[in-house]
Structures are given as C-alpha cells and as structure tokens.
Design a protein that fits this description.
The protein is mainly α. The chain has ten helices and no strands. Helix 2 packs across helix 6 and helix 5 crosses helix 7. 33% of the residues are buried.
Length: 205
C-alpha cells in the first residue's frame, strides 16, 4: 500500500481517506453494538460518533499503510453491564468485521449492477473501498488478543474452555507483533491473509 502513496500522491490521498472511513465505521459498529446491548461505556467515552478522530489508532493505522492490514482504537466495553458477557462480547466484537464485509458486498453490487463500475475513477475508488474493508475484516478476525477474533472465539467456547482460552490473552499483543514483522521475507500475517484476500477480491470484483 505504501507504493501507492509514493508513486501517485493523489491516489495515495484517496487511499488514506478510504482507510480512515473503513476504520471509523468498524469501530463505530463496535460502539453501537455495545450500547444496544446495554453498556453505556462507549457512549460515555465519546465513541458513538462517526468522527474519525475518536476511532483511529496510530500504530494500527501506520501498519495498515505499510502492510495493508491494521486496526483502529479499540472500543472498551464493561462486561458487567452485559446480560450475557461472553456471548454479548462476541456480538460486539463481530459487529466491526461484519460492517466492513457488508460495505464490501454493497460496493461489489454497485460495481456489477450499476453503471458506476464503468466510470474509471469511481470504479477504482469503489474497488479500493472493497479491498480495504476486506483487509480490515480479515485481519480483525484473527483469534489473537486484542483483535476481534479472540473475543469471537471466546464467545463460542464453553465456560471451562473459555477460562483456558483467556490464559492466552496476556500474550496476544506479542503474538500479533511477531506475526506482523517481516524478518526473513513477507510478514507471516501476509502469508496467511493475502491468498484469502485475493480470492475474495476475485469474487467481489
């Protein structure tokens, strides 16, 4: 993604704006889901907003620019305010990737079923929106803390299995960094996600 910014500054600016949009709706979806499930924490922290400044995470945004995969500032929720903490936590976590996938599907329909796909500039921007949304969704579905996938898996486990799963939480960030660093070639996270991303782009585009 960095080569887009350096080779074509205008296209790079559009990419950054698309990135900001995708991260914003992702985190906004988390906040709305938590609020609807009974936890006022995101509302009290000013996260029920589409203002990007409330949702961008510096490290996650930089990683997205350099690798194509990243995250926004995590929406904090209090499980004690939820009726079913693990299951509701799973729903909150799933809301972010779900909205990104939904937007990608809508954009795919726009490309295939309307004249917009035939307009070079608009078609390219819509394709970019699809790619960034899918990248964000796939990355966040990885079952490693602090990503959404960790909480989604936790919500699917039994109580006893959940206790064991939770023991991995303190190591999640270090695992994520290890997966994201290209020490001896492409980053492991790219080797895992890039083939899947290419397949989905082939279907949607």
């Amino acid at each position: 993604m960095l080569d887009i910014i350096t080779k074509n500054p205008l296209l790079g600016l559009i990419y950054i704006l698309v990135l900001v949009f995708c991260i914003t709706i992702h985190e906004f979806a988390h906040a709305i889901a938590a609020d609807k499930l009974g936890d006022p924490t995101p509302r009290l922290q000013g996260r029920i907003t589409l203002n990007p400044l409330a949702h961008l995470d510096p490290l996650g945004s930089i990683l997205m620019v350099f690798t194509g995969f990243g995250w926004g500032r995590a929406v904090v929720f209090d499980p004690y305010n939820l009726e079913n903490p693990r299951q509701d936590g799973m729903k909150i976590a799933l809301a972010g990737p779900a909205i990104n996938i939904a937007v990608a599907l809508v954009c795919s329909a726009l490309l295939k079923l309307t004249p917009l796909g035939g307009v070079a500039v608009l078609g390219s921007i819509i394709a970019m929106v699809i790619q960034v949304n899918l990248s964000l969704a796939l990355f966040n579905l990885i079952p490693v803390e602090p990503l959404d996938g960790f909480k989604i898996v936790n919500g699917l486990l039994s109580k006893e299995q959940s206790w064991k799963w939770e023991t991995l939480r303190p190591y999640g960030f270090y695992i994520l960094i290890a997966l994201s660093v290209p020490l001896f070639g492409p980053a492991p996270i790219g080797l895992i996600l890039t083939p899947l991303l290419r397949f989905l782009l082939g279907v949607l585009l």
